[in-house]
Write a structure and sequence with these properties.
Elements: H1 4-7, H2 29-42, H3 44-47, H4 57-87, H5 92-120, H6 126-133, H7 141-149, H8 157-165, H9 167-170, H10 172-183, E1 190-191, E2 197-198, H11 202-207, H12 215-230, H13 233-253, H14 259-264, H15 271-284, H16 286-300, H17 324-334, H18 340-351, E3 355-356, E4 368-370, E5 378-380, H19 388-409, H20 419-440, H21 444-480, H22 487-502, H23 530-548, H24 550-561, H25 568-575, H26 583-602
Parallel strand pairs: 3-5
Antiparallel strand pairs: 1-2, 4-5
Helix pairs in contact: 2-4, 4-5, 5-8, 10-13, 15-21, 16-26, 17-19, 17-20, 18-19, 19-20, 20-21, 20-23, 21-22, 21-23, 21-26, 23-24, 23-26, 24-25
């Protein structure tokens, strides 16, 4: 049987304008390799400070500055190798360079681990004394104080160096998953209702077939997609189980009460904030989403509402397509409210080949934005001419705008805020795009389509990723009890999460239980639930921008520029949102409910 692998274009066959410009990082492979080699000797510029950090505040400051300069170079080298792999993971040279960089990064992390170890060995109050002695150290205040907080969970300097040197091993579960998914996981063709053979890939399924208005295409593609996943379920279960075991082992070694406590630490998030996000949305959003599923089943005339039907367009005769060029014009118009500095970044993003939008064999699925310090952001996506892609691109441009500003105004070690906040700037762009489209359109059907896209955004963050977060919570609880994680147990857990949320409104087949195989987020700590946290925040701020205008925009831009210099609660407080209590979560859930209300009215003949 012919496979998708034989039909998809190779990377070399893709027209250059559809790809990102990696020459903005390195002019050539040789230039990249020369820099990688140079870093080996230049790391001594940082390690020369070993055993001297206690000498003075100035010594500590100069060391941190030197480390930042070195890490800026490392980030560019690592980013180049990563992006080459993500654009074509089937390329043996890309695979080799990725592995080479991973090993180098582990070596560098081991060599630089003395900085944290020495700071953690300072006598109590020494850091505060250094802040007075060397005012420039205030630049690193949050990082240094956060480090002191971790002192109780830090091991001996020798042990920390060993663990740092094993980073490549620690990241191997994700590397194995990612490389296998891009290089080895292939799907057989499926038939449409005209008995025509249609190619299938991860990108084609997630970006086109899962969203298809053709029930035969949607369900047949799903059947073959699940068949492909089945072939790797035991391998991926072993890979994910290794990741979970690693995290639990590290939490015990470091003396945490639980793996959840350890993983929430870097996010500056309390256990209550974490549980509020999961509990409230899982329980209180469920009735609204079940109403949406039942509406979709009725309007699409489905015999049953299967899991694979959830993303089918409700108005199946109105699924507009759009060119990439027109989509970027629309996004830029929608974001004008954000002001000139932000708009300059957006224009560069769409005009200067920051975006890789090609479809080719070996390319990573999904979409992401990588923002190397000292260079511009890079966005990966697969453009399929469906208008939903406009929202995906706006989302990734939100990440790009955020980190372009953070990189510009902060030191390299201060750019990244908590992952609890990270999805707020991206979803903000989606909300602004939706508002713009509704205001610009006089077509009620188009307005309904935009409401459906908004619901798509909330579905992505408040359903897809929230249910991933709930799955993670259950996985860690089970693993900490000593229960094994197998393909069967993981699928059973995922199936339980789905049925608990959807109730009798959706038929959850056994294949739906394999959904845990589809996302790399489980290898990124407690990341999935933060999607809903970010959208909770952007929902509140978008409302402020609509009501207040420029003052709210200025507050938001300042928050983006702050990067990682503040906690997520401080950042959101500066923007005017208090997420220390559950009210904003409930308000966001209520807003989603109002969107479902509007949708139901739009299909009620008495409302027309």
């Amino acid at each position: 049987m012919e496979t998708t692998k034989q039909k998809r274009p190779t990377r070399q066959e893709v027209p250059e304008p559809l790809t990102w410009n990696l020459k903005d990082l390195f002019l050539s492979h040789e230039a990249w390799l020369a820099e990688l080699t140079a870093l080996d000797s230049d790391v001594s510029e940082v390690t020369q400070f070993r055993n001297h950090l206690i000498n003075s505040g100035q010594t500590l400051f100069v060391c941190l500055q030197t480390k930042d300069a070195f890490m800026e170079r490392v980030i560019r080298v690592v980013t180049y190798a990563n992006l080459k792999l993500f654009e074509d993971g089937s390329n043996a040279e890309n695979q080799g360079n990725y592995a080479k960089v991973s090993n180098k990064l582990a070596t560098f992390n081991g060599a630089l681990s003395f900085i944290e170890s020495e700071i953690l060995s300072f006598p109590e109050g020494k850091i505060e004394e250094f802040f007075v002695e060397e005012p420039k150290l205030q630049t690193y205040q949050k990082n240094l104080l956060d480090l002191v907080k971790r002192k109780a969970h830090t091991l001996t300097p020798e042990t920390e160096q060993v663990l740092a040197s094993l980073n490549a091993v620690h990241s191997s579960p994700y590397q194995i998953y990612s490389q296998s998914k891009s290089s080895d996981l292939h799907f057989s063709h499926f038939k449409n209702d005209q008995d025509e053979s249609m190619p299938l890939s991860f990108a084609l399924y997630e970006d086109r077939y899962e969203l298809s208005s053709d029930t035969t295409v949607r369900r047949n593609a799903y059947s073959n997609f699940i068949e492909g996943l089945e072939n790797f379920k035991n391998t991926y279960a072993a890979t994910y189980s290794s990741e979970v075991t690693k995290q639990i082992t590290m939490s015990k070694i470091r003396g945490y009460d639980s793996v959840t406590e350890m993983l929430l630490g870097p996010q500056d998030v309390t256990l209550d904030m974490y549980n509020n996000q999961l509990d409230i949305i899982y329980k209180e959003l469920s009735p609204h989403m079940q109403r949406l599923a039942k509406l979709k089943k009725r309007e699409l005339g489905l015999d049953q509402m299967y899991y694979c039907d959830l993303k089918a367009p409700l108005d199946h005769e109105f699924n507009p397509e759009i060119s990439y060029e027109k989509a970027t014009e629309m996004i830029l118009e929608a974001l004008e409210v954000m002001g000139p500095e932000y708009m300059e970044i957006m224009k560069k993003g769409v005009n200067d080949r920051w975006v890789d939008r090609a479809e080719n064999h070996g390319k990573m699925t999904g979409a992401f934005c990588s923002s190397p310090y000292g260079a511009h952001p890079y966005i990966l996506m697969t453009w399929t001419d469906m208008m939903r892609g406009t929202f995906i691109l706006a989302h990734e441009l939100g990440h790009a705008g955020h980190f372009y500003l953070a990189n510009k105004y902060q030191e390299v070690s201060n750019t990244r805020p908590s992952t609890y906040f990270v999805e707020a700037p991206s979803t903000m762009n989606e909300l602004l795009l939706a508002d713009h489209l509704i205001n610009q359109s006089s077509d009620n059907r188009m307005k309904r389509w935009v409401i459906l896209q908004l619901l798509g955004t909330y579905y992505h963050n408040f359903v897809t990723h929230l249910l991933e977060g709930e799955f993670q919570r259950r996985v860690y609880k089970r693993a900490e009890k000593g229960e094994s994680l197998t393909a069967a147990s993981l699928s059973e857990l995922k199936h339980s999460v789905l049925t608990g949320f959807w109730g009798d409104s959706v038929t959850i087949d056994n294949g739906a239980g394999l959904t845990w195989m589809r996302q790399p987020h489980y290898y990124m700590g407690l990341y999935p639930y933060t999607y809903s946290a970010g959208l909770t925040a952007s929902t509140a701020v978008a409302k402020m921008i609509k009501e207040e205008g420029e003052p709210a925009v200025e507050r938001w831009i300042d928050v983006l520029k702050a990067g990682g210099t503040k906690t997520p609660l401080e950042l959101l407080s500066d923007a005017g949102v208090d997420l220390s209590n559950p009210n904003p979560i409930r308000e966001a859930v209520a807003y989603i409910g109002s969107l479902v209300d509007e949708l139901e009215k739009s299909f009620d003949p008495q409302q027309l």
